[in-house]
Amino acid sequence: MGIHFKIVGNKKRAVEFEDRIDGYLRGIHGETEFSYLLQLDPYEYKLLTEPEIQNLLKVCDFLIQTYSKDDWYHNRVRKFGYGLRDLCLIALANKDHMEALGD
User: Which domain of life is it from (predicted)?
Assistant: First the structure.
């Protein structure tokens, strides 16, 4: 089960937080700079407001900087981080909310 992030009202663009990446991050780290991301319920819907989107941006920057090895998991974590960061920046620029949708 993954969590899909998207801008409210925009069905064209979404980023998935895959369950394999979730499991990998939980296995490597407990409570960390990206705890906010790991605390999202994969079975729930959450509306994300501007402060929460700002928090996700910090998580994305941490993931992009920390996972720099050239292996499958690090590449997937970075790809997710870049995708979510771009989505967050678009939402903030347009003053939109985001949704976190569990499977």
Answer: Bacteria
Parent domain of 50: 3-14+35-102
Residue 8 main-chain phi, psi, to 5 deg: -60, 130
62 in a domain, yes or no? yes
DSSP state of 42: T
Asked, for residue 81, whether it belongs to a domain, the answer is yes
pTM reported for the whole predicted model: 0.90
Strands annotated E in 1-103: 3-7, 14-17, 45-48, 98-102
18: exposed, middle or buried (Cβ count in 10 Å: 0-12, 13-18, 19+): middle
What lies within 8 Å, CB to CB, of 25 at 6+ separation is: 34, 37, 38, 77
Q: Has residue 25 been placed in a domain?
A: no
